[in-house]
Amino acid sequence: MDEVALKMTNVNKSFGGVQVLYDVSFDVRAGEVHALLGENGAGKSVLMKTLMGVHRPDSGDYIVAGKHVRFNNPTEAQRNHVSMVYQEFGLVKYLTVAENIFMGRLPSRRGMIRWGYTREQAVGVLDSLGSDVPPTAIVGDLKVADQQEVEIARALSYDPVVFVMDEPSSALSYDEIGHLYELINTLRARGVAMVYITHKLNEVFDIADRCTVIRDGSIVGTYDISALDISTLVEKMTGKKVSAEIVREDIYKKSKANIIELQNLEAREKGKVLFSDVNLTVGKGEIVGIAGQIGAGKTELGKTIFGALPKTTVITGKMIFDGEEIAFKGLNPSSAKKMGIGFVTEDRQAEGMITEQSVLFNTILPAFHRVTRGFVIIGRLARDMVRGIIKDVALRPPDPNRLLKFLSGGNQQKVVLGKWLAAQSKLLLLDEPTRGVDVGAREEIYDVVRQQVREKGLGVLLFSSDLREIMLAADRIIVMRLGKITHELLPHKTSEKQLLHFVLGEEEEGEAAGNKKE
Ligand SMILES: Nc1ncnc2c1ncn2[C@@H]1O[C@H](COP(=O)(O)OP(=O)(O)OP(=O)(O)O)[C@@H](O)[C@H]1O
Ligand SMILES: [Mg+2]
């Protein structure tokens, strides 16, 4: 199993005179899961894209299965059984699942596309990763997790010898990650060389054999997982000594007034209950975490508060925002924004931002009234404000004029968050806000959020399937499962394990895990 399937040597890459990869050498063995780790902007995606022929390296030597290669484009790479699941989705939203999987190479006979056969093939690939997404569904109608599975299925359909996954799990629920792990184990047994990029370090210990850490475009080192612990790993990634636990404000102060209060909230779409019996409050200056799997109803609840569900959804119950009862009839995202509700979504590609525009443009969009007089944008005001935000969210590079598409994934997410902070929201709804954000940046983001919350009396509802995130960031935790609130917990009186049991609906184990802790 020690045979090297992929060997990259002395890869250098710069964009417009700015070097982002310095003499990077990296190899992956057949039948190995090799985690590629590093902070946002370290160069992970760019490195693998030079292999795929998405980016042309300035120099570098590539060997796949013993042969020197240099792919000019992804099609060429895929034909040679090197495929990649990209961090940003490359799916065509108005085409079907099957069309997306076999894009550019739909099976045909005598000039006719064999649709039946194509669908069968698609089902075959989807099956192998435990996905039941129908091949005839339009990709744009699918939820993010399903789109991610289609993305994986497409890469898999090239029968890869080298299989690169750039944050494949960030949009997946526990069950779906379980399927992904099974798939990875199957591919491992088949001798496929896998590169696994992730910011969830527990996954590294779950499935990787070795890992390579990259920092500021240079390799820090390659390590056997069995000889590594998590704090050493974080240290290698950040270059700084870290304390494993964030110091939590030890006294939980209950706030005086509520920014929002939900009473017996229920939403139905075409007779299907999205969630029901939701009663909760968020105090001014409080972060309430909603923990639950993808599909528990968290996103729907967030969208209800933001007025972003389709008009056909029937919503009953009461919502009191900043002391006033809000009628759901008149509520829509723009009226919600005006009231001071901000929504940071999980799907930053589709909803959060305009990648063809600059950081400056994207940040001032929701805060327009603060930098305009009449219809004129006051350039200086805008720039000052954006500089403040860039500093607050520790954007890298700190350049207001950079187009969003040239930022790394995690830094794009910081821009999304920054723009809502700029809009001076009273209540922030954060839906999987640190998806794709590295550990260092994640803590920076929590710090920003916490500071705003305490200083400005902002309320936050944090919806997350990442339990560590909930444990670290929330003052109070509400567990949602299958559209209902099942538990309310305090993070300092709960273990992550107990929370996981509750999220999965394993009450007894959860209680047991709780008792052990006392
Ligand atoms: N097309 C591009 N043009 C110019 N600069 C780019 C481009 N793509 C990436 N960069 C820059 O290259 C550096 C490395 O980016 P890369 O996307 O590889 O980071 P990453 O390690 O994948 O980070 P993340 O974890 O946030 O995805 C960053 O400084 C980024 O701003
Ligand atoms: Mg990346």
Notes on the protein architecture:
This protein folds into two domains: 4-238, 3-Layer(aba) Sandwich (Rossmann fold); 284-311 and 326-517, Rossmann fold (3-Layer(aba) Sandwich), CATH 3.40.50. The protein is built from 19 helices and 24 strands. The chain is globular. It is 35% helix and 27% strand. Mean pLDDT is 85; it is low at 243-255. The chain is an alpha/beta fold and 518 residues long. Helix 15 (409-422) runs parallel beside helix 16. The protein binds adenosine-5'-triphosphate (ATP) and magnesium ion.
Give short descriptive properties of this protein.
2 domains, alpha/beta, six-stranded mixed sheet, 518 residues, Rossmann fold, 19 helices, binds magnesium ion, binds adenosine-5'-triphosphate
Q: How many strand units? A: 24
The level 1 CATH classification of the largest domain is: Alpha Beta
Taking pLDDT < 50 over at least 5 consecutive residues as the criterion, the unreliable ranges are 243-255
Architecture (CATH level 2) name of the largest domain = 3-Layer(aba) Sandwich
Major sheet description: 6 strands, mixed
Helix fraction by DSSP (H/I, runs of at least 4): 25-40%
- What strand order characterises the main sheet? 6-9-10-3-11-12
Tally of DSSP helical segments:
19
Bound molecules: adenosine-5'-triphosphate, magnesium ion
**Radius of gyration computed on alpha carbons:** 23 Å
Q: Termini, distance in Å? A: 46 Å
